[in-house]
Design brief:
By secondary structure, the protein is an alpha/beta fold. The protein has two domains: about 160 residues, Rossmann fold (3-Layer(aba) Sandwich); about 140 residues, Rossmann fold (3-Layer(aba) Sandwich), CATH 3.40.50. The protein has eleven helices and twelve strands. Bound molecules: beta-D-fucofuranose. The site of beta-D-fucofuranose has 13 residues, from helix 2 and strand 9. The site of beta-D-fucofuranose (GYE) has 13 residues, from helix 2 and strand 9.
């Protein structure tokens, strides 16, 4: 079981000692000291990559919020490779940062490096994506969305989309999955399937499903192959907007109308997704909020100061149908 208090108490002691030791070192990227004149918290952050609009907005949010909080942020981009994230985390441990935060590209394979962080008494905060671990004490908390619920919401909103479009016959769904092994890919598929199994056993079928790695290029390429193998697809469920946008290009290239011949539901709610929706090409979007920076910095501060935090700090988000897109577009923040 997680013994967070002991872990944190130990972490704070070491963080304070680490802070003193770090004073001697020059740190060019330091963003200054916190208000009381005390040493700024050094946060090592390992980002997944820069695969999507969501990710860019998330990176900006993290960087801005760290600056705002007066933290010394060490940031690295793993280019969607787990081994890069593991080396980044190892380097943060070697640099004796106060807190490590990361958004794990996939769910498994973290125990070894997380044990190293624990042995060095550096608390780890997960953000955006979760991990599977046999030892709960290896991370303090997760700040991020409920992806299973997003999948369920996508299923529910598809019911509305189909009703609005007046689709009567069989629903043949193509699914563009996110990065294989990543929490949002696993859980969004799971939540969507729950709705299918509960209410649409007879009328909906996923006829093809493959990863597009959360990128536009991936979505475009995989959708082109789907249209070749299954030209009768009438619905696309894309695990993110970028893959839906890529897929739209292939749908149009195949002489079909996205949003009409093929109804599209995606997840994220980035600006380009809203633009495609206001053009009638995406039918509905389930929002997944990337602006996690401020909440993350608050948690990092609490953890660093030895306070207790919830095990999972969930993000709040909404759902949008096509007829809301134009009105919502100017107010979208990412
Ligand atoms: O949906 C996708 C990004 O982990 C929630 O990763 C995030 C996902 C997001 O690449 O666009």
């Amino acid at each position: 079981m997680l013994n967070r208090r002991n872990f944190l108490t130990a972490a704070v002691g070491v963080a304070a000692a680490g802070g003193l030791a770090a004073c001697a070192k020059e740190d060019k990227s330091s963003t200054g000291t916190s208000s009381g004149g005390s040493k700024a918290i050094t946060l090592g952050f390992s980002q997944v990559g820069s695969e999507s609009g969501w990710r860019s907005a998330n990176t900006t949010s993290v960087k801005e919020a760290a600056k705002e909080a007066g933290f010394n942020l060490k940031f690295s981009d793993a280019q969607q490779k787990q081994e890069n994230q593991i080396s980044a985390i190892r380097s943060y441990i070697a640099q004796k940062v106060d807190v490590i935060a990361f958004s794990p590209v996939v769910v498994t394979g973290w125990d070894a490096v997380l044990k190293e962080a624990k042995a060095a008494k550096i608390p780890v905060v997960l953000t955006d994506r979760s991990v599977e671990t046999s030892d709960d004490s290896l991370y303090v908390t997760l700040v991020g969305s409920d992806f299973t619920d997003e999948g369920r919401r996508a299923g529910k909103i598809l019911e509305k989309v189909l009703a609005k479009a007046g689709v009567k016959g069989p629903v043949k769904i193509a699914q563009l999955e996110g990065t294989t092994g990543a929490a949002p890919a696993i859980e969004r598929a799971k939540g969507f399937k729950e709705v299918m199994d509960a209410d649409h056993k007879g009328d909906w079928k996923i006829v093809v499903s493959q990863t597009g790695d959360f990128t536009r290029a991936g979505g475009k390429q995989v959708m082109a192959a789907f249209l070749q193998s299954n030209p009768d697809i009438n619905v696309l469920f894309a695990h993110n907007d970028d893959m839906a946008i890529g897929a739209i290009q292939s749908i149009e290239a195949a002489g079909k109308k996205p949003g009409k011949d093929i109804l599209i539901v995606s997840i994220d709610g980035v600006k380009d997704g809203f633009i495609a929706m206001s053009e009638g090409k995406i039918n509905a979007i389930v929002e997944c909020n990337p602006l996690l920076g401020p909440q993350l910095m608050e948690v990092v501060k609490t953890v660093h100061d030895g306070g207790s935090v919830e095990r999972w700090i969930k993000t709040k988000e909404g759902d949008f149908m096509q007829d809301q897109a134009k009105a919502a577009l100017p107010t979208r923040k990412y």
